[in-house]
Amino acid sequence: MGSVVVATFNIQHGRTEAGAVEPGLLGKACAELGASVIALQEVDRCTTRSGGTDLTALAAEETGMQSCFGAAMEMEGGEYGNALLVDGDLGDREVVILPQTSRYEGAEQRVAILAHVHTAGETLSVGVTHLDFRPALAEIQLAAVIDVLRRRPGPHLLMGDLNLPPSVVVPAVEAAGWTATAGLETFPLRHPDRTIDYVITQGLTVESLHTRILPVGDHRALVATVTPVHSPTE
Fold it and tell me: What is the sign of the dihedral through the CA atoms of 4, 26, 188 and 169?
C-alpha cells in the first residue's frame, strides 16, 4: 500500500484565458496533472457552448482513465455538472442532489458524485462537488456531502470547489473528524487571492500539496499526494 496522487480542478467548461472554449485542451490538461484520481467541476456534456462535446468522455479517452459524470442541470441542449476520472477501477457510483434553499431564475442546482475507487493499490470512497456561491447555503451543502460520504467505507476523499474560505471549511470538517487542506490560493488563475478549492480527507494523510496552472479553466488545479494512515510509510 502506498501513496496516491489526487487533484481537483474547476475547468470552466474548457475555457481558455483568451476566452475561447477549447475542448481539445482538456485531455492534455488532465494528463499534465499526473494524478490517479481527478475531480472536475463546471463540466459540460454535449452543450452548444462546448461544441456538442462530452468533455468527460473526451478527457477519459485522452488520459485512458475511467470516468463518470454527474449532471447538476440541463444547459444549452446538454448537461452541466461534475466529473470524476480514475486511473484504475471505478466501482459503484451515485449522484447526490444537495440542498437548495431557494429557487430563482438561473439558479444552479448543486450535486456531488460519490464513488468507490480502486487505484494505485488503494481502495477509497471518493466525493466530487461544487458548492453554491452563497456562503450560508454552501455550508449546509458541505455538511450534507460529508454526511452521505461518511456512510461509505473509508478511507474517504472529498474534493472540489467549495466556494468557502478556510475559516469556515476547516472547523466544519474538523468537527466531523476529517481534515481539510488550507493555505494554497487557487482563484483567480493568474493572481490568486482566495482558497476555495480543497482536498478533504478521513483516514488519509496529505503528504504534499501544490497548485498548477493549466491551459483551460479559471482556477489553479490543486494537486495532493495522500497516504492511508495504515500504510507502512506512515
Answer: negative
Evaluate whether 30 touches 56 at the Cβ level (below 8 Å). no
Nine-digit cell at 40?
472536475
Query: CB–CB of 24/55 below 8 Å?
Result: no
Question: Measured between alpha carbons, how far is residue 230 from residues 51, 61, 171, 233 in Å?
Answer: 46, 33, 25, 8
Does a structural domain hold residue 234?
no
Domains in the chain, number: 1
**Considering the chain, what percentage of its residues have pLDDT values greater than 70?**
95
CA angle (217, 221, 211) in 5-degree steps: 135
Per DSSP, helices labelled H in 34-186 are: 55-63, 135-149, 166-175
Q: What is the CATH number of the domain that holds 32?
A: 3.60.10.10
| pLDDT tens track for 214-228 | 999 999 999 999 999
**Is-above-0.85 flag for pTM?**
yes
